[in-house]
Design brief:
Blueprint: H1 3-6, E1 10-16, E2 19-24, H2 35-50, E3 56-61, H3 96-114, E4 120-124, E5 127-129, H4 133-136, E6 141-145, E7 149-151, H5 167-171, H6 173-182, E8 186-187, H7 188-193, E9 199-201, H8 206-218, H9 222-238, H10 241-263, H11 272-276
Parallel strand pairs: 2-3, 3-4, 4-6, 5-7, 6-9
Antiparallel strand pairs: 1-2, 7-8
Bound molecules: zinc ion.
């Protein structure tokens, strides 16, 4: 294991009273998500949730890109006990163990983060690819630099898309299909026009604009914010979001099972160039 691999993946800052800013701190790997990053992020979010001084949480990222997605070089192994679910038997053969891992480390964490009882804001620059969307979409608000792009090219891996499958809720059904069928990224301005992003700013303004928004929100009563957040989440659930995500997650793992049966690996790597160089 290299020194880089041992380095912390997450850093928490307190840039203003009432605000915690958690940063993905693995820029040399374009903030690729290995299990260590996911669970360090989970611990940082849990600490900010429990900290009575923190009223709003910003999720930011070091380097030119917010996140390049899952770190495919890292083993699918939890770095410690599960925190989102009571899943176990992660070493079971076939897709049984891998399904348990994805239930806990991908779907379980995303759902846990979505329900964090304080406002959360993703501060996004550069590329957000596939698994990267699973860090952005569970947040309440998204502020993007105008160089930000959002892509999910993993249909080329023989699965449907990233495991937290809220694509149609985020960008609408037709745009979601185009995103998934072509693998081409959505720009920050396009994402703003379709309601996926709250605000687009120049890259040099990203940090200040996000902090200013967080500070405005933090000045309002925390309990009202919590009630508002939960009410919007339940509104999405009433539209079938939870069931849709569960169905897509089952299909995603059908894709993994098919790939395992045909190729011996949970992803089909025969068209990996379509994943590495998505679209325009
Ligand atoms: Zn998967």
């Amino acid at each position: 294991m290299t020194q880089q691999d041992d380095a912390p993946r997450i850093r928490t800052e307190h840039p203003a009273p009432d605000i915690a800013r958690i940063r993905l701190a693995r820029p040399a790997k374009r903030n690729a998500q290995d299990p260590a990053l996911l669970y360090q992020l989970d611990a940082a979010l849990a600490a900010a949730a429990a900290d009575t001084r923190v009223r709003v949480i910003i999720l930011a990222a070091d380097g030119p890109d917010f996140s390049s997605g899952h770190d495919l070089a890292a083993p699918f192994e939890l770095p410690g006990p599960p925190t989102a679910t009571l899943e176990g038997d992660f070493d079971a053969p076939g897709v049984e163990g891998h399904l348990a891992f994805e239930c806990e480390a991908f779907l379980g964490l995303c759902r846990r983060w979505r329900e964090l009882p304080k406002p959360t804001i993703a501060q996004v620059q550069g590329r957000v690819i596939a698994g990267g969307l699973m860090l952005v979409w569970p947040m309440d608000l998204i502020v993007a630099a105008n160089d930000a792009t959002f892509a999910d090219p993993v249909a080329a891996f023989g699965v449907n898309g990233a495991e937290y499958f809220v694509h149609a809720f985020e960008v609408g059904a037709r745009r979601a299909k185009e995103l998934l069928f072509t693998g081409e990224p959505i720009t920050a301005e396009e994402a703003h026009a379709m309601g996926m992003v709250n605000k687009v700013v120049d890259p040099g303004e990203l940090e200040n604009a996000t902090l200013e928004l967080a500070t405005r929100i933090a000045a309002r009563p925390a309990f009202g914010l919590r009630l508002a957040k939960t009410s919007v989440n339940r509104s999405q659930d009433a539209q079938g979001m939870q069931q849709a995500v569960d169905t897509a997650f089952a299909l995603h793992n059908l894709g993994h099972a098919n790939n395992l049966a045909r190729f011996g690996t949970i992803i089909d790597t025969s068209a990996i160039e379509h994943v590495r160089r998505p679209g325009r």
